[in-house]
Design goal:
Layout lengths: L12 H10 L3 E5 L3 H9 L4 E4 L3 H4 L11 H12 L6 E5 L8 H13 L5 E3 L5 H9 L4 E6 L5 H4 L9 H16 L4 E5 L3 H10 L4 E4 L7 E4 L1 H4 L21 H13 L11
Parallel strand pairs: 1-2, 1-8, 2-3, 3-4, 4-5, 5-6, 6-7, 7-8
Helix pairs in contact: 4-5, 5-6, 8-9
The structure holds 3-methyl-2-oxobutanoic acid.
Length: 269
């Protein structure tokens, strides 16, 4: 049972912070349309992420790069119409936050037209985060594997394995937190590094392929339902396998996160 179980009261950044402080794990799933969004919300998931992963799982691209701000507004709106309890985060897509003015225009559109509660941006961008926060926009950072930088990274690879890179990721996490971000997502990094980052910052840290010791977990919905067109990544798990239906799979994931049963060592680096 969550500290905040009222299915009609929308969670806020204060609730997520209180969950970190109380040691209650935060569950998060992506969703992109009203039917899945309502189901994910009703299954008790704390945070719904309208990720730009929709470029791959909805639009069929081989990366997130073609996703536009208008795409993100459209899919965010589909979710904001139906969710009741889950906090709603929307991704700022590729090249939509190259400077502070552009970031503010697009983040405001995600909130005003998309109904997002928070926007997510990839990489260490403290100036942009400060600007958004000073204009009333809650921000979620994203470090580790950055899908929008796949062409720079040379593929979808685990990040932070070497000690210098690990130190730099820890410093980036601190600067994102100090810039005023409310949440941080860590993607694809050694579990020990993600644990150290989660301890080092005061904001909640949500992991994907980042081990059990983050403050919460996120998965791409279509991966955990095993209906993605690409291969399921090692860090994800097929929750449909032991569930009779989609709602049971989502509830099992939620409980596995809350009870620290997911991710296991086999889903971690
Ligand atoms: O776009 C997305 O779904 C994401 C998650 C993988 C964290 O950013």
């Amino acid at each position: 049972m969550s500290l905040y179980a009222d299915p009609t009261r929308t969670l806020t950044v204060s609730h997520l912070l209180a969950m970190k402080q109380a040691g209650e794990k935060i569950s998060c799933l992506t969703a992109y349309d009203a039917s899945f969004g309502a189901l994910v919300d009703q299954c008790g998931i704390d945070v719904i992420l309208v990720g730009d992963s929709l470029g791959m799982v909805i639009q069929g691209h081989d990366s997130t790069l073609p996703v536009t701000v208008e795409d993100m507004i459209y899919h965010s709106r589909c979710i904001s119409k139906v969710r009741k309890r889950a906090l709603l985060i929307s991704d700022l897509p590729f090249a939509s936050y190259a400077n502070t003015d552009q970031a503010l225009t697009h983040a405001a559109a995600l909130m005003q037209r998309g109904g997002a509660d928070m926007v997510k941006l990839e990489g260490s961008k403290p100036d942009i985060i400060r600007h958004l926060v000073s204009n009333g926009i809650p921000v979620c950072g994203h470090l580790g594997l950055l899908p929008q930088s796949v062409n720079l990274l040379g593929g979808y690879k685990v990040q932070g394995r070497d000690p210098l890179q690990a130190q730099s990721l820890l410093a980036d996490a601190r600067s994102i937190s100090q810039a005023g971000a409310s949440l941080l997502i860590l993607e694809c990094m050694p579990a020990t590094l993600a644990a150290a980052i989660s301890q080092a910052v005061n904001i909640p840290v949500i992991g994907i392929g980042a081990g059990i010791d983050c403050d919460g977990q996120v998965l791409v919905l279509y991966d955990m339902l095993d209906i993605s067109i690409s291969n399921r990544p090692r860090f994800s798990k097929n929750f449909m396998q032991d569930a009779g239906n989609i709602a049971a799979a989502i509830r099992n994931y939620h409980l596995a996160v809350k009870n620290r049963q997911f991710p296991g060592a086999e889903h971690s680096y």
